[in-house]
Write a structure and sequence with these properties.
- With 196 residues, this protein is an alpha/beta fold.
- It has two domains: 122 residues, Nucleotidyltransferase, domain 5, CATH 3.30.420; 69 residues, no CATH class.
- The chain is 51% helix and 17% strand.
- It has a five-stranded mixed sheet.
- The model has no long low-confidence stretch (mean pLDDT 87).
């Protein structure tokens, strides 16, 4: 059996096939991130071994179309979280593009830990919708956290006593936001005040 690692991007995908037993590289390929490229990937993989599993770096938006095309073609697909590929990447960095290295790292992570230890991809539109909504929520929470942290840094320079009086999570309350807004409006206009 072979494991085919995929490093997915908006315009192209890097693929690397390794033998499951030895981890030896069986081939590399780069394909376009479109229907023709996905079909070419399946043909290429079928020419390498009759038994195979695809290990796709789980990038959500970039990996979704490839994942769906492979599943529709009857291929077996597992998702590899980027942090699980870290150990496989060490020592393999070279100058230039790292996509083939990342594809190889995805495949080797599955070889090292075993296919059964990775989430299996499947065609389920409802699950995909929930996953997309969950990802979007996580993005919004992260963005809000960045905004609050930035505001706190500006407050530290503008009104250190106000910033130090705000407890963790204080910006979850409208009255605190109103208090900060009123205080900022009283300050002399400057770049930092406008940004804050």
């Amino acid at each position: 059996m072979i494991v085919i690692g995929a490093d997915t991007h908006k315009g192209s995908h890097a693929l690397a096939a390794v033998d499951e037993g030895t981890g030896k590289v069986r081939g590399h390929r780069e394909i376009k991130a479109d229907g023709a490229g996905h079909l070419a990937a399946v043909r290429w993989a079928r020419g390498l071994d009759a038994e195979r599993v695809w290990a796709i770096e789980d990038c959500r938006s970039c990996s979704r179309r490839l994942e769906q095309a492979l599943l529709a073609a009857g291929e077996r697909v597992v998702r590899v979280a980027p942090q699980r590929m870290g150990a496989s990447r060490k020592g393999e960095r070279e100058p230039g593009k790292s996509d083939p290295i990342d594809a190889l790292a995805a495949a080797r992570a599955v070889v090292k830990d075993g296919v059964e230890r990775f989430p299996v991809a499947f065609l389920d539109e409802q699950a995909m919708e929930i996953r997309l909504l969950l990802d979007h929520r996580q993005d919004l929470v992260a963005e809000r956290t960045r905004i609050v942290n930035r505001l706190r840094w500006h407050l530290l320079g503008l009104c250190p006593e106000l910033e130090s009086s705000l407890k963790r999570g204080a910006f979850n309350h409208a009255r605190v936001l109103d208090r900060v807004d009123r205080r900022l409006r009283k300050l002399a206009t400057g770049a930092r005040v406008r940004i804050a």
